[in-house]
Amino acid sequence: MITIKNLVKTYTTRSKTTTALNGINLEIGKGEIFGIIGHSGAGKSTLIRCINMLEQPTSGSVWIGDTDMTRLGKRQLQRQRRRIGMIFQHFNLLSSATIYDNIAFPLRLERMSRSEIDRKVKAMLELVGLTEHATKYPAQLSGGQKQRVGIARALATDPNVLLCDEATSALDPQTTDSILRLLLDINRKLGLTIVLITHEMHVIQSICDKVAVINDGIIAEQGPVIEVFLKPREAITRDFINRESDSGEVLQEAIHALNPESSRTVKVTFIGELTYQSILSQTVKETNVDFAILQGTISRIKDVPYGQLIVRFEGNKEAIEQTLRRLIEQRLEVEELQ
Ligand SMILES: Nc1ncnc2c1ncn2[C@@H]1O[C@H](COP(=O)(O)OP(=O)(O)OP(=O)(O)O)[C@@H](O)[C@H]1O
């Protein structure tokens, strides 16, 4: 659906040249929710803005279906952009227009008839749950409601791609969750492809199918969210994961306080149905080792439950080795920590 090939973007000012994107390659499937996560300055905004040519790439190409967006003339680009909706961190609503008129705005640009516009705006208001608020102005709405208007306006022209530029970063956690649920609902109802950028892992974990981790203008790691977050390969990915846990320092102390001769500390990950099974206790009964749980969590990545335990095994070296082998045989992910 969206293919980004060798994308490079440099910004040149009088004093310096900044390479914001340095050879990005991405493949985003139709109907996918694809998240791009990175620290401030990593290149996220530049990347998402290159998808609809709000930023002109320096080199490389961006394909949406069979269309290379980098090669379009002004008219063709305008036409293509109607197929790509976008929502923003600070909503970008017209403050002097009612909610109804904000949503009608892109439709009027398309010179739709009044009755068609009315039908479409009402359908959009219903989709985002704001029917009661049609005659209000943006200043009379909460942040979450304003973002719903942003979503309704973005979807009014029936796009097949929705770009979300830090769409929940200005919202509190509860409102963030309600907007994320709405995006997921829309993705499922309309089969819409969604590309979102964020610096919060929670956003990716809640609704994305795939994720790319961007750092210094390059993709450090990408793949299905379960793969990337539960088996991270790169330090930057681990950094995002560990930032969510506030016990990182205490845990490091606990791990380093151990006698490496008689104990081993591992992170054990249970994915899907395995999350609810008593595999650990059955295994240590067989192998006769002791264990202490240093940390435990249970959560979900989109619809898939997972559990993670940081466990210190103590006892006979051979018996610990056998325990780890048995856990792996039973399809648990085992990563040794040091
Ligand atoms: N218009 C511009 N002119 C010059 N440099 C720019 C411009 N826009 C972005 N940059 C630079 O490009 C790099 C990537 O910026 P970008 O805004 O894409 O990062 P980001 O990951 O979205 O960061 P943030 O989360 O803080 O918005 C940064 O070094 C930034 O300073």
Automatic annotation (TrEMBL):
One of its GO terms (molecular function) is ATP binding. Residues 2-241 form the ABC transporter domain. InterPro entries: AAA+_ATPase, ABC_transporter-like_ATP-bd, ABC_transporter-like_CS, ACT-like_dom_sf, MetN_ABC, MetN_ABC_transporter-like, NIL_domain, P-loop_NTPase. The keyword Oxidoreductase does not apply. Residues 310-337 form a coiled coil. Signal peptide: none annotated. It comes from the Bacteria. SUPFAM superfamilies: ACT-like (SSF55021), P-loop containing nucleoside triphosphate hydrolases (SSF52540). The keyword GTP-binding does not apply. Keywords: Amino-acid transport, ATP-binding, Cell membrane, Coiled coil, Membrane, Nucleotide-binding, Translocase, Transport. This is Methionine import ATP-binding protein MetN. It comes from Saccharibacillus kuerlensis. The lineage of its organism: Bacteria, Bacillati, Bacillota, Bacilli, Bacillales. The gene is metN.
